[in-house]
Give the backbone structure.
Amino acid sequence: MAKYSEMSKEQLLAEHESLLEQYNALKAKGLNLDMSRGKPSADQLNLSDDMLTNIPTLKDVFSETGLDTRNYGVLEGLPECRKFFSDLLEVPVENIIIGGNASLRVMFDYITQCLLPNALGAGWLASGKPVKFLCPCPGYDRHFSILEYYGVEMLPIDMEDDGPNMAQVTEAIQDEQVKGMFCVPKYSNPTGCTYSDEKVKALAAMKPAADDFRVIWDNAYLVHDLVEPEQGDKLLNIFPEALKYGNEDLFIEVCSTSKITFSGAGISAIAASEKNIAAIKARIGKQFISNDKINQLRHIRFLKDIPTLMAHMAKHREIMAPKFKAVDEKFTEGFSECGIAVWTKPKGGYFINLDVMEGTAKRTVALCAEAGVVLTGAGAPFPYGKDPKDCNIRVAPSFPPVEELKTCADILVISAKLAATEKLLAK
Ligand SMILES: Cc1ncc(COP(=O)(O)O)c(C=O)c1O
């Protein structure tokens, strides 16, 4: 078979008709499948079930240092939990605060704190001028939702294979109203790329015009390898690099156990400079007296230390890797000859980034929905949901079982090809 771009009108018509037949046959099955969000599967959640029973009696509610986890206290989190995240993020214990169950809430709260007075002086809103933020994209839609909620103007930055386009970043930060940037530096959502040492160093050395500029360093997928960790991507620790330029206050690192233990009942962590930790503590201390330390205790008893964590992540990998492989095989089989799509082959994380023919992503997603497969909305990984090329589709293979996933991928391939032939025939 030739590439679609090289086909005659007659060949394209014949291809279109054959695709339509295959599509209608799949549609007739009346499927109801969901590949829309990067949720762990039930099999993955089951891996952490021991956490549900590791505080069996009253005498077990005490932490290593004798703290009664049922009571108020230690706003910054259990010392053993802080030590765990300190080892994981390679940041001193004093620079860690344990948060609640969602790093997203930590990020929302941090942005709120920056907009208002106190944490960073007068706050981003003080001048009355528009607040702007850099958004490497495709990126994580929920980061963009936080900014949209507050009316922060989002400036797209091209995401390259090894991180954001630094020329665009360097130019944009000359504007004093550009107050920050979202980064997912490892196994990024949705491209799966990891920032190169060069890009981490360039970000660490940035000289923004705004003296209250902040980077949210969302390290959500730091241990989520789909290959043996030795063969996986390595991310340079941002803090020692930033310190070289006196830029340690620029970075707020967050992560969570949402995709390690339970997505709805994990724990999160913040790593930041001494100054930022003090400002965060001052703010959260007005919000609550302590986080859920019983959950922190469950987590530390279960995850224990980094070797135990990595052994646990290997079990996630056993479930996840075959799913990514199945999708990749379906895409290779379906797309390699027609030449209408490119996709990423990440070594970790939760997503595959699929770029279909320009101007056909929305149509592809709609065709999938009609055939009973729900995908993430086309455009979601872009600020304001607007993909300028209408070509990006975020594929989330984690939730459906492998056989179901193969059907989803078949429908996605046929839908993308159908949308492409429709577009080419309409020319
Ligand atoms: C990059 C990124 N950050 C954060 C989250 C959400 O994390 P949490 O459950 O800790 O709020 C996700 C979930 O998909 C994500 O992809």
User: Anything to note?
Assistant: The first strand starts at residue 33 and ends at 35.
